[in-house]
Amino acid sequence: MTPKEKIKKALRHDWYVQGFNSVPVFLEVAAWSGVVMDQELGYAYRHFMYHFKEGYGEMWYDTEDFDRLWQIIKSKIDQDPHYLEKTKQLYEKIFTKHERLFKKLETKKLSDTTNKKLFKLVQHLREAMTDAVGIAHIVDAVGQEIEKELKHNLKTELGQDGVKEYFAALTTPSAPSFVAREDRELQKIRGWSGTRRQRALKQHLQQYRWIQNSYRGPNRVTVDTLEERLQAAPVKTEIKRAHSAKEKEKLMKTLSLSAQTRHFLRNIDFITIWQDERKEKVLKTVEYLSSILAEVSKRVGIDVNDLYYLGTKDITNLISLEDLQGLALELAERRRGCYFLHDGPQQYVISGADYQNIVALQQTTTQAEAGKEIHGSVANPGTVTGKVAMC
Question: Contacts from 58-62 at CB under 8 Å and sequence distance 24+?
Fold first, then answer.
């Protein structure tokens, strides 16, 4: 079956679609974690699909994967209440080796690196991009499904009015996001002046220069942009102050919630905080991978924005940097529009005429479900475009 036929067939699945600014070398490479996480966990997602065009992308989750993985994870939590915590500890341990590499890159001048060593860095950072999401990819399935069950329980125990009154307070994370922490630290500099202020801004920039990155690539923060934020009126970085775990436990007790509902709420709190920490690792990895690709672009003469259309299999199949020359036309074509499909460990990509054919097919046969209820605990979300189904 050709890649076009595989993707056409896959469109018949029931998909949960999220759209945001993104490109394959960051999003698809990171999401490859959902395919290979069975090496650590013994289970994995079966399908992913992506639609990319000129810096915008959609990630498609097979809804059957969400339900299947949640049933597996829920069973493991029943057997071991600390399953999520132990999985997170393993995730952190796996990523540690990449953080050591990041520290080395801080003092490394890429322009002095040989092609052979630069090629190895591309491979290492590809692995880091995958591990930045890594086995933490389970939080997407858990968040999507656990909230459905939670809402059902809360409606039974509190009634619809009670859900409206208490849902936000019960599900607000008990720890501030990295965005809130960064802003709080920046605001401390507001009243400083002179050399002390400049030194503090440079240190802040060094620590958080990755904060505006995305799955689209780097978005450089400068001392000037930090100054602009300080000159403007302070803004709240979160709609509500995060409730402490102690406060939430007190509220759950006051509402006389069932043991199962309290368990769901604790797990939602845990995975929401974990998801935020995962996003921080992703944005830091984008910083280093994009810097390496910028250097590669200079050496092979391919626009870095075209290199952003490399996928996991493209990078792993490379033998040397020079091999990228053979992908130059294909990458430029993908930038104008492409689909990726993960069918288990197999990857399929289409662009050009095949891509246009699939787009035309979607335009005539796809109808998104308006008003679909969206579930999931989302940290720094993209735009959810809803469910897409094709007959």
Answer: 58/17, 58/18, 58/19, 58/385, 59/17, 59/18, 59/19, 59/22, 59/27, 59/31, 60/15, 60/16, 60/17, 60/388, 61/15, 61/16, 61/17, 61/18, 61/140, 61/144, 62/13, 62/14, 62/15, 62/16
